[in-house]
Amino acid sequence: MPVNKYALLRYRIIDRKIGSKYNPYPNKEDLRQACEDELYGSDEGKISLSTIEKDLFAMRNESNLGYYAPIVFHKANKGYYYSDPDYSIQEMPLNDDDLEAISFAANTLSQFRGLDMFKSSEAAIDKILDRFNLNPKNNESEVTSHIQFETAQSYKGGAYLPVILKAIKSNKVIKFEYQKFSGGKKQQYQLHPYLLKEYRNRWYVIGFNPDKDSVVVFGLDRVAGSIELTDFDFSRQAGFNPALYFEHSIGITAVNDDPQRIHLRFSPLSGKYIESQPLHQSQKIIRNDEVALEVELFLCVTKELIMTILSYGTDVEVKAPESLRKQIGQSLKNTLKLY
Domain check: are 129 and 213 in the same one? Predict the structure, then answer.
């Protein structure tokens, strides 16, 4: 008997929750809430505990699925775990029902490409559809011998997204330990979470830190252990606008400085790439001929902007402002000292 498409999607969510090292031992309510959040958003009451019980039974026992998942209930921690810590249904080959569920989900999303809320995800949706259309029978070796897709190792910190999103929606304070890349001891933080942002395969949470009395950014890949959703409510700062917070920034750094007119001159070849894929939404072309492409951007000077400019090497020249031109020049001089 074919498996319900939504059941297959729930199995994947349940598998991810039970296998999570960040939030181990989820109970039935945790699994129910995770499935409801991911499949239906804030529309509550769509999934019952009895549905989760049937899903757990199916994942353990049903031969047509072939999972035979080693799901065990831990009495002391009052939650579920895999007796084999390396087990995951993600490692199993997809069957026809899985492929049909993926196709169903991807094609459903594709119907909403034009909506504002999906614009940032259109590329991801298109990639899923491209992959499925090129490989409808899941013959991976046949496809990869002819086509290579760009891949990322993982989306760092993704396991924390459900609890943070729940805190954002309900205006609840979260608590966690954080280890900076620069070293030092782990520190405990409380945060009023406002926004989640993905940048270069890493997830970040932006929110108000009452200890610093300011809006700050935390990389989720530097969170140590779990994130606690507290019972304490918070009120958002009236001046914070998620749509505008990174309006004048490239990357994840937002500064209080005023944005500046950034004038860049690219070689003709690199200019073609910049023209076809702008560096920022504020980009305006002010010259485009056989000699050079010159663009103007309205941005704050951040570390990510500097790294982006430096990545083009001799194919780019900063024309203005003079302060940024000197900063890039000094970075290049420091680089030369290494060789």
Answer: no
Taking 90 as the threshold, does the pLDDT of residue 118 lie above it? Answer: no
Residues 170 and 79 in one domain: no
By CB atoms closer than 10 A (0-12, 13-18, 19+), residue 120 is exposed
Pairing of β 223-233 and β 293-299: unpaired
pTM for the structure as a whole:
0.63
Same domain, 49 and 171: no
CA gap 118, 24 in Å, rounded: 31
**Residue 283: how many CB atoms within 10 A of its CB?**
17
Q: What is the pLDDT of residues 41-86, one digit of tens each?
A: 655 667 899 999 999 999 999 888 888 999 999 999 999 999 998 8
Mention every residue, 6+ apart, whose C-beta is less than 8 A from residue 81: 18, 24, 25, 71, 72, 74
pLDDT for 1: 38
233, 171 contact by CB (below 8 A)? yes
